[in-house]
Amino acid sequence: MRLLFEIGMEELPARFLKQALNDLKSNLETKFKNERITFDSIKTYGTPRRLILDVHNLAEVQEDLNLVNMGPAKNVAYVNGELSRAGLGFAKSQNVDPAQLEIISTPKGEYIAARKFMKGKPTRELLPEILKSLVLELNFPKSMKWSDKKLRFARPVKWFMAICDSEVVPFEIEGIVSGNKSKGHRFFGKEFEVNSPEDYFNKIRENNVIIDLDERKNMIKNLIETTCVEEEEQVLIEPALLDEVTNLIEYPCPIVGSFNADFLEVPQDVLIISMEVHQRYFPILDKNGKLLPKFVVVRNGIEPSEYVRKGNEKVLSARLADARFFYQEDLKHPLVDNVEKLKTVVFQKDLGTIYQKIQRSSKVAEYLIASLGCEDKKEDILRTVYLAKADLVSNMIGEKEFTKLQGFMGADYALKSGENENVSLGIKEHYYPRFQGDTLPTQMEGIIAGISDRIDTLVGCFGVGVIPSGSKDPFALRRAALGIVNVILNSKLNISIKALVEKSLETLEEDGVLKRDRNEVKAEVLEFFKQRAINVFSDMKYRKDIISAVLDKDFDNLIEAQEKINTLEEFVKEPAFSELLPVLKRVGNISKDHTDVIINPELFTEEIEKDLYNFSIELSNKVTDDIVNKNYKQYLAHLTECKDIINKYFDTIIVMDKNEAIKNNRLSQLRFLTEIFTKMADLNKIEER
Fold this sequence. Notes:
- The protein is α+β, with helices and mostly antiparallel strands.
- The relative contact order is 0.05.
- One of its GO terms (cellular component) is cytosol.
């Protein structure tokens, strides 16, 4: 059988569409599994006006249920040949007559059991309730009620089309009855009757609806590239905007519009943001990437319209006029004048104003300048920190129209105010990365300003009890920590995470805004950093057990941590490691609860103990030099030398001797070895493969 189910409604917000389809598919799969109904595949389709499920090769009948549920042991279930309270209770819980209980022999003895057999029902009998519950249980980020309905949905539901082969699946929700009718495009289609799933796919296209998201997206892109550009032109198609536009329409028709070239005096990023974010237009550029006074709007229709073109041009002109006004007003004053205004802008109620934040960030920046040896850039770096947030109170950003341009506008205003190019670039780059996979800063001005700003946000919020939980992270602290980790790794900064956190705590204390115990905050922030570092290294496709082995030992210097991970990634591929790992794990497991490493040679009773002791002292000296010199490859090579002597040790003696002193001395010997094995990483955490 083939099942086709369509939920028709008023236009769904673009950001809801994909998740709704994913949830519908996942929920239906679960329901079929719970009802023992098999199928081959479930495909999803969707537009703003419809959510569609297409189920192929649906079983006509449920699978039979044949279960044997085990109960208590026979000697518990029966007393003197009669069912005990335990036996009767089990029968009641299984909803079977006590006489139907069976006795089953198992390797552990005899137990009572209840056998259940249920003949599978026809799938068609079960589908109405399955589809009804599917609708009622679907959740959205925001739902609504309408008219006199109690049903909550993202938008008012208009129809249900439910067809199993050629028959309607009948159900009703608050007066909305399922049927075999659907509707085409709102303006270029009509209502139509469906006789089968195959019939639906033909008629929906005839009624000017492209239900496949990928097909609709490719259609938009191809139409723009083939019909909307002239020679030497290109359309800027941002993937996120393309996805959004795809989810806003049922049939694409791109139209080219234009605007007054005088607006091009405004930085083109401002104009592009106006078009993309506010109007969902695609900008047109020349071959060199310079914005032209043209754009593409994608109409939800089958043919171009002069009215639509002129209407969109009029709306965009008003937007661009606002942008030009804000820009011209901002240029009347140098950027540095804005810094004083930040004294009135609250960053967080307990952490003070943004101006206070700048003062704290400057102190952290001075520490980083000294740590990284950037004294020659000190003036530009501190100037960058001082001006980095100045554009937040500009007309362009402060009016909330162009918040995505913070940093970019500051960089532009800085240059036009006479600041040097390094400071301008630093203001722009201190926001990088803004999201996963974003550009990373390239110059020390932006690198240090960005780390200083983020660490103040992160430690400050933890310091006043604003800590992420679940999906709640109002100050984007996870993103801040990830940003610091990525910048450190990309720029290869040899800095201490612990010292960085300590410096930030110091500035918060001096500012009088730290509300919680300093040591508790430090421990929590470091653990938070560790988890973010694990995420970053995992995204780099390193083995998770190796990441854990290294970072659980030490993650203070991320550059060194990455070097250790790289070395281990290569070492674990060698045969020597496969032979060494069982030895390391054996030593570690035996000594894991023993903490003493003081060894008394006078308690040795076997020659092998003396040999291992002398070997261990020599090995310890070697590997200590390796770790100090950061020669991790040599360190691991030295460890491979211990395999034979440790195996001989275990073959010769019994560690758990009856004499307590001898036993503890041997455990100390093994504990000493374990500490040698874990100087670089906790090698016991690496999995055998």
